[in-house]
Structure formats: C-alpha cells, structure tokens
C-alpha cells in the first residue's frame, strides 16, 4: 500500500508570522454562500444550498472565507454553503500538531457539558478530494462520521449527521488538560481558552527555548524538518480523540441532503 500523499498547503501572500498567529481567521457570525472566492451573507441557507452536498464540520480555519479562498483559489466555480451550528458535547481545542504554515492547529475533543459554536461546510462531492488534501488525511487528520450528536443550526433545525476532521496527533495537554481556542465560542468550558499567540508562547516555554513567539513561528514555517522535530516532542501526554458518537470513515461519503434536517 502506498503512503498517503503529503498534505497540500495552499499558497498565501501573507507574512508567515501573520498567517500562523491569526489562525483560525475571522469568520462571519451568520450563514453565507462562498462563491468564486467571495462570501455572500444569507439570513439562512435554503434547502437547495444543501441538496446533494456533504456536511462537514468546520471547527477552525475552514469556517473562514479567507481560508476557503486559499484552498480553492485555483478551482473556479467553487460554491460552498457555510452554516453556523451548535455542537453539543464537544470542544474545539488546540491540537498537538503544527500545520504546514506553522499554526497550532485545531481539533475536536469530546467534552461533556460543552457546546461549541462552529460551522458546517456543505461541500459538493467534487471538492472533497481537495479538502481532504488540505487536511492531510491519513497523515495528520482522520475523517470521521458523527451520528446522533444533536447538532443544531443557529437559524433553527437539527442536522442528524455530519462529518469532520480529527487530528491524529491528539489534543495538546497544557499541563493540566487541553485548552479551547478563544476564537471559537463555547459554553461550559471549565478552563480558560487561549488564542494562537498564547498557545505558541506555551510551546516556546515547553520546548525550553528562549526566543520571541514570532521567531519561533518563522523558523517552523521555513524548516519542515525542524517543525516536525518540535511537533514530535509534543506527543507525550497528548489527549487522543475518542467518542462512541464518531467513527473513522475510509471512503468519501455519498452526498447528503436537506432530508437530514428536521
């Protein structure tokens, strides 16, 4: 069996430090249609916006128009419906993985009592290969199916099932447990959430380094081998995803429709 391909890191004109430290990037607090690189706000998605598409949880940068623009910039005609939802029983936390552009990436962790406000990207099947490539399926993330979670759209109605990406490296243990992303609203958290800069500052101290966060990020963005070596030192104590409501799926899912909503 051949090894999974290397993750596709979309090109960007941003300074590497800015790209890493502004992760997971601004996202609208409303539903929108992403069409040819632009976000068109809508009061609520219509059934036609979901029909024949695959619902995939967007817990970090995938909910942000600027990240979708980077990921699909070379694919004209791209259209993705993005729906704001509440995800009960899970939190969005900092992972033990440094992305190809040196951000400390997000992942999901089962967290009883927490309700995270995330998004669903309703993806046309033809875009799934690209999204998988940007997530590093088989190397950095697993693609999982969530069932019976009780996902609620902020505009009303439930989504009976969705898919998502879960980091294979697990959630980073900050010494007394994981930390949520402060950019992702959630109720029920028992520990303070951190922004990207604070999380990266923790890494600098944890690795026994003495340098500004900006220098640390710039080194990681420029040197893949160094970044991988530093990431490997985060593995001990990492908290790995487990939930009876989720299972890893190997194949691309069949398109789902508005029939999943109630």
What is the string of helix and strand elements? HEEHEHEEHEEEHHHE
Proportion in β-strands: 25-35%
**CATH homology superfamily:** Gamma-glutamyl cyclotransferase-like
Poorly predicted regions? 256-260
Structural class: alpha+beta
What Rg do the Cα atoms give? 18 Å
Identify the CATH class: Alpha Beta
Shape: globular
Helix content range:
10-25%
Tell me the number of helical segments per DSSP (H or I, 4 or more residues long). Answer: 7
CATH fold type: Hypothetical upf0131 protein ytfp
Report how far the terminal alpha carbons are from each other: 42 Å
Question: Your description of this structure?
Answer:
Helix 6 crosses helix 7 (about 225-230). Strands 1, 2, 3, 4, 5, 6, 7, 8 and 9 form a 9-stranded antiparallel beta sheet that branches. This protein has helices spanning about 15-20, 45-50, 65-70, 130-135, 195-205, 215-220, 225-230, and strands at about 30-35, 40, 55-60, 80-100, 105-125, 140-155, 160-165, 185, 245-250. The protein has about 260 residues and is of the alpha+beta class. The chain has one domain (about 15-250): Roll (Hypothetical upf0131 protein ytfp). It is globular, with a radius of gyration of 18 Å. A hairpin with a 5-residue loop joins strand 4 and strand 5. The longest helix is centred in the C-terminal third of the chain and has 11 residues, at about 195-205. About 20% of the residues lie in helices and about 30% in strands.
């Amino acid at each position: 069996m051949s090894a999974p391909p290397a993750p596709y890191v979309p090109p960007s004109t941003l300074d590497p430090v800015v790209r890493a430290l502004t992760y997971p990037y601004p996202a609208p607090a409303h539903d929108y249609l992403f069409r040819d690189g632009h976000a068109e706000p809508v009061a609520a998605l219509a059934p036609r916006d979901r029909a024949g598409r695959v619902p995939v949880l967007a817990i970090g940068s995938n909910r942000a128009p600027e990240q979708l623009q980077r990921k699909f910039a070379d694919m004209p005609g791209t259209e993705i419906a993005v729906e704001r939802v509440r995800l009960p029983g899970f939190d969005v936390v900092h992972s033990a993985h440094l992305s190809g552009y040196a951000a400390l990436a997000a992942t999901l962790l089962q967290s009883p009592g927490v309700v995270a406000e995330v998004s669903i990207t309703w993806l046309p099947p033809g875009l799934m290969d690209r999204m998988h490539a940007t997530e590093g399926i088989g190397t950095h993330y697993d693609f999982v199916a969530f069932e019976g979670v009780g996902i609620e759209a902020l505009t009303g109605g439930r989504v009976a099932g969705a898919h998502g990406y879960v980091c294979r490296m697990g959630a980073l243990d900050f010494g007394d447990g994981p930390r949520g992303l402060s950019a992702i609203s959630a109720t029920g958290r028992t520990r303070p959430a951190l922004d990207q800069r604070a999380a990266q500052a923790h890494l600098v101290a944890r690795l026994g380094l003495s340098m500004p966060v900006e220098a640390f990020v710039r080194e990681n963005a420029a040197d893949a081998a160094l970044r991988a070596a530093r990431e490997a030192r985060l593995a001990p104590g990492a908290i790995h995803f487990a939930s009876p409501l989720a299972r890893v799926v190997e194949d691309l899912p069949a398109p789902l429709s508005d029939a999943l909503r109630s």
